[in-house]
Design brief:
This protein is α/β, with parallel strands linked by helices and about 425 residues long. The protein has 15 helices and 21 strands. Helix 1 (about 35-45) links the parallel strand 3 (about 25) and strand 4 (about 50). Bound molecules: flavin mononucleotide and iron/sulfur cluster (2 copies).
Length: about 425
């Protein structure tokens, strides 16, 4: 099916006061660092494009050596288009080579094109002092940005290369000092009418509290997340791979980003959330939306696959919406987030389980026994499970390749706790069973 990228209504979505034609956003970076690249991103079909961050310590872009290092990126000579799922990307790229006030000229030239194609242009920059932050904000707005993404995530502290101590007060400094960041948000919001998003570093902590500070300062949304610094080692040489920022190419980053993005969305009702870091496939984007994001940023997956990939993301989402009969993105936003279990709900609503083997399927391989840490399984020709020992952890049923193990609800909750303590019943106190 050929996609009409201009008229994909089913994917249209609200992001703060903006309406995007789809929720797929080009994350700030090399995808959109020049006039030509921004235009190509627009043509690729992104709902919005975040520009490469320009910062007032632009000279930090002078130390990216080597620029990119892929660790564990497997190629397949028999399939030139093979894309590995799991690898690390370490890099040393920081800001644009151009100062923010020069980047304004790039925005001025690219913005009319983005406007004409119904693609929102989000200007990204970082600065040190409040007057720098506000001056650039007004210049970016005047140049045609639909929104700003103020970069509180990179560059990282310039690691001895700062020309003055003030150069350390940039980028990630504001994720680490959110009270100061909130003052900057407040100052910018007094001057510009376009929405302001704050991009956070995963190297921070206390994201809900931090997001509340930005919400109270008037921010329209947060972007969660940028890269954080990572380390890998080549065990053949004993040398570290470059020690640098890493995007979400390795699976677990998505789960972390989704968790914090969902928590912020739950607690900060006025903030829009752009999720990202680890969204690789269109399915990942759907997950982010269901977990509370209003739009989803993709950066490194598009950098490595090329801009044609955006069309695949759009088509994948469109087919999904058709298959599931969803009428639009608003139908799926937050649906999973609203059902995230609290501990009290879990204790009240979720029954304990035990495992049962279907002997007609079991091939006696013993795989289940190796993963049972409650000593409930024995295997002769076929696996046998002792119900009173089974803690219902369900690992065995998930590792069994024969599909021979099924999980069942327990009638009696006490049996579950007895199974958990089966090895040392004399060591538990009686109130263990009644809490
Ligand atoms: C090479 C490279 C350069 C990047 N440069 C920027 C940047 O200038 N500004 C920014 O806000 N984020 C930058 N990022 C971070 C991405 O926008 C994105 O937040 C991050 O890579 C996680 O998303 P992903 O897993 O989709 O790549 C860069 C990422 C990469 C890989
Ligand atoms: S893993 Fe499955 S097939 Fe193998 S012994 Fe256990 S139940 Fe049987
Ligand atoms: S569910 Fe867990 S505790 Fe029960 S038999 Fe399987 S692995 Fe053992």
């Amino acid at each position: 099916m050929e996609t009409d990228l201009q008229n994909t209504n089913v994917l249209s979505t609200k992001l703060a006061s903006l309406t995007l034609k789809n929720p797929i956003v080009a994350g700030g970076g090399p995808l959109a660092g020049t006039v030509e690249h921004i235009k190509r991103c627009v043509d690729a079909g992104f709902g919005a494009v975040v520009t490469k961050t320009a910062s007032t310590v632009w000279y930090l872009q002078h130390f990216p050596r080597p620029l990119y290092k892929l660790v564990g990126y497997k190629t397949d000579p028999s399939d030139h288009y093979y894309e590995p799922d799991d690898y690390f990307w370490l890099h040393r790229e920081h800001n644009s080579s151009f100062t923010p006030m020069n980047f304004v000229k790039i925005i001025e030239q690219a913005a009319p094109y983005a406007h004409s194609k119904n693609c929102k242009l989000i200007g990204s920059y970082s600065a040190r002092f409040t007057d720098e932050w506000t001056q650039i904000a007004t210049a970016y707005e005047a140049a045609g940005c639909h929104a700003l993404e103020i970069n509180f995530c990179c560059p990282f502290p310039p690691e001895g290369l700062a020309k003055s101590p003030d150069d350390n007060r940039v980028g990630i400094y504001y994720t680490k000092h959110p009270e100061e960041g909130a003052k900057i948000v407040e100052a910018i919001k007094q001057l510009v009418k376009i929405p302001v998003f704050v991009k956070l570093s995963p190297d921070g902590s206390g994201f809900v509290e931090m997001a509340k500070l930005f919400e109270n300062a008037g921010a329209d949304g947060v972007t969660m997340f940028a890269n954080n610094k990572m380390l890998r080692v080549d065990i053949e040489t004993g040398l570290p791979e470059i020690y640098g920022p890493g995007p979400g190419t390795a699976g677990a980053f998505k789960a972390m980003a989704m968790r914090f993005a969902a928590e912020v969305k739950q607690e900060c009702s006025k903030l829009a959330v752009m999720g990202g870091r680890g969204a690789i496939t269109w399915q990942d984007g759907i997950e982010f939306l269901m977990a509370g994001s209003d739009a989803v940023q993709y950066c490194s997956p598009v950098m490595i696959r090329g801009l044609d990939y955006v069309k695949k993301l759009i088509e994948g989402m469109e087919s999904y919406f058709a298959r599931k009969s969803y009428k639009g993105v608003e139908d799926i936003k937050e649906i999973a987030m609203r059902k995230i279990y609290t501990n009290t709900q879990l204790a009240k609503d979720v029954k304990s389980l035990y495992a049962k083997v279907d002997p007609s399927r079991c091939v006696g391989c013993g795989r289940c026994k190796k993963s049972c840490w409650y000593d409930a399984i024995s295997v002769a020709k076929c696996a046998g499970i002792v119900k009173k020992r089974c803690a219902g952890c369900s690992l065995c049923s998930q590792v069994c390749s024969a599909g021979a193990i099924s999980m069942h609800e327990r009638e009696n909750e006490r049996e579950h706790f007895e199974a958990m303590a089966m090895a040392h019943p004399d060591l538990v106190t009686e109130d263990y069973y009644s809490i």
